[in-house]
Specification:
This protein has 8 helices and no strands. With 178 residues, the protein is mainly α. It starts with a helix and ends with a helix.
């Protein structure tokens, strides 16, 4: 019974992956997602946190510290989870998956890019909720880009959203002086 439920969820996830990934050949989508995916990469996330740390004062500085802690802690958790659940990337397992030249070869679960972007934006949004109007669509685009580019299953991305959000929230609560 449980096996059938898990198989059903996996089939549903594969269908969702294919719905998103099938648009890979569209030049405008491809250009957008290839660009926006980099926002979740280590270089951009670390630079963002370092710039915020060096230029901010007061409450925003506390939010930047929370983002730095969140990014660090969530990255460690991602690396542990990738070792504990060595899930192959969808372009390696799903026939017809479209993906870029020289794709990532490490494990798929959870999405590190998605985790990183959410772990950085969540403390900032808690500090300045209006920034959510700008930051959530960017983070969501990073998340969708990982599926679009054939590098992650939807559950990898969902796990990254949850992990980044939870660690970001906890970091914010621990750092902010209320």
């Amino acid at each position: 019974m449980l096996s059938k439920s898990i198989d059903g969820l996996y089939e549903m996830e594969c269908r969702l992956f294919k719905i998103i990934n099938r648009h890979y050949e569209r030049k405008m989508f491809n250009a957008y997602f290839r660009t926006v995916t980099n926002i979740g990469g280590a270089v951009i996330e670390i630079l963002t946190v370092l710039i915020l740390l060096s230029l901010s004062r007061g409450g925003l500085r506390h939010a930047a510290i929370a983002s730095a802690i969140s990014l660090t802690v969530s990255h460690i958790i991602v690396q542990i989870l990738k070792k504990l659940w060595p899930r192959k990337r969808p372009y390696l397992t799903l026939e017809g998956a479209l993906y870029p030249v020289n794709p990532l070869t490490d494990h798929s679960f959870p999405s590190g890019h998605t985790t990183a972007v959410f772990s950085v934006i969540i403390p900032i949004i808690f500090y300045m909720p209006m920034l959510g109007i700008l930051l959530f669509p960017i983070a969501a685009s990073v998340a969708v880009s990982r599926i679009f580019l054939g590098l992650h299953y939807p559950s990898d991305v969902l796990a990254g959203i949850c992990l980044g959000t939870i660690v970001g929230w906890i970091s914010y609560i621990e750092v902010m002086p209320f």
